[in-house]
Write a structure and sequence with these properties.
359 residues, Rossmann fold, 2 domains, 7-stranded mixed sheet, 10 helices, 14 strands
Length: 359
């Protein structure tokens, strides 16, 4: 076994931030309300019975729920080998994550680890091609108003609202209850907070490319005294190069996000890579303009109208249901299920289980 350096992240009880310490490697449908959060918080103060939900032992990102927090491993986004382990241990604060294999050191900003490819370096003259649909959410003003008016505008497209969207997502995520959930492109933490409050997951990781969105997530989380920050970890990450070990995650959620991703194909490759066998991916997004007519006459019939209405000048990509089916299937993800209303679609797919070896 190749020895590697690990860094542990301490999840503070009183604030949603992380503290790092160095260690060494030795070799149904139910509405989630504030009342649920109150009961969950009250229950956490009492002696807890043994968790009857089986915990995954597949892959290096094995997690466990404890009164102190939860454990899950991040990895270097370049080599995918050097590990940075999140746990509930206390220790001195580190502001960097060195990878001895890649000779790169990743940094953190305002308590949030930054495991993007440009973390800790000056790219110099070279600049990656920007994508307006992603860059707009790096604007602090947009991050601030996202839950203060921006997100409410989605209702005109058929989005039912955060609480009902949560119910739909929880139905799809039921197989992963008791495990760690990655809330990918978490934005301001609209669903991250609700997932923590549900007390259905041993831990929730909020990941986003926008630094200002992650700060909003932390701020809004800390304002709610009913939420247990030991169940939350935040990380800056690029959906096209996720800092998670292959086959390590039981569930990934991406709410109203796919239309903002610069390269959905590369992102779906990564999602398929980090999901463990049987893991589930749940996402919501916008369908194309004439998609509501597709529910009446069939998507094939209205496809020419959608093609005419498509504009490459838009900073986002709207979808057809069949496009989402084709994209996920091309990455080996199966069991496509969906809920569709007007231009809103929420879908779920799963990573197939490994075939049993014949003796």
């Amino acid at each position: 076994m190749i020895a590697s350096t690990k860094y542990s992240l301490h999840l503070s009880k009183n604030r949603a931030c992380v503290v790092l310490r160095q260690c060494h490697n030795s070799g149904p449908r139910a509405r989630i309300t504030r009342a649920h959060a109150v009961r969950a918080r009250a229950a956490s103060s009492q002696p807890q019975a043994a968790n009857t939900t089986p915990q995954s032992k597949t892959g290096p990102a094995h997690s466990r729920s404890t009164q102190k927090g939860f454990d899950v491993e991040l990895v270097c986004p370049i080599c995918l080998q050097t590990e940075f382990k999140i746990d509930a241990s206390t220790g001195p604060t580190y502001r960097s994550f060195p990878c001895s294999k890649c000779k790169r050191t990743f940094t953190s900003s305002r308590g949030v680890p930054d495991l993007t490819l440009t973390s800790g370096i000056d790219p110099g003259v070279y600049k990656s091609e920007s994508f307006a649909g992603q860059d707009i959410f790096r604007n602090p003003l947009v991050s601030f108003i996202y839950e203060r008016g921006w997100r409410q505008g989605f209702k005109s497209a058929g989005f039912p609202g955060a609480d009902e969207e949560l119910e739909l997502a929880m139905e799809f995520l039921t197989p992963a209850f008791g495990e760690v959930l990655l809330d990918l492109s978490c934005g301001s933490g609209l669903f991250t907070r609700r997932f923590v409050a549900s007390d259905k997951f041993s831990g929730v990781i909020g990941a986003d490319y926008s630094e200002s969105m992650l700060q909003q997530t932390k701020q809004l989380f800390n304002q709610d005294q009913l939420l247990d920050s030991r169940r939350l970890a935040l990380v800056r990450a690029d959906v096209a190069r996720l800092p998670f070990a292959t086959g390590s995650l039981a569930a990934i959620h991406a709410g109203a996000a796919i239309h903002c991703w610069p390269d959905p194909t590369a992102a779906m490759v990564e999602i398929s890579r980090v999901l463990r066998p049987g893991g589930v991916f749940v996402a919501s997004t916008f369908l194309k303009t004439f998609s509501p007519l597709g529910e009446l006459f069939g998507d094939d019939a209205v496809r020419p109208l959608n093609q005419l209405s498509s504009s490459r000048s838009l900073p986002y990509r709207w979808w057809e249901e069949q496009e989402l089916r084709d994209l996920t299937a091309s990455m080996g993800l199966q069991n496509f299920q969906r809920h569709r209303q007007n231009r809103f679609i929420m879908f779920a797919v799963s990573k197939p289980h490994e075939a049993r070896k014949q003796s």
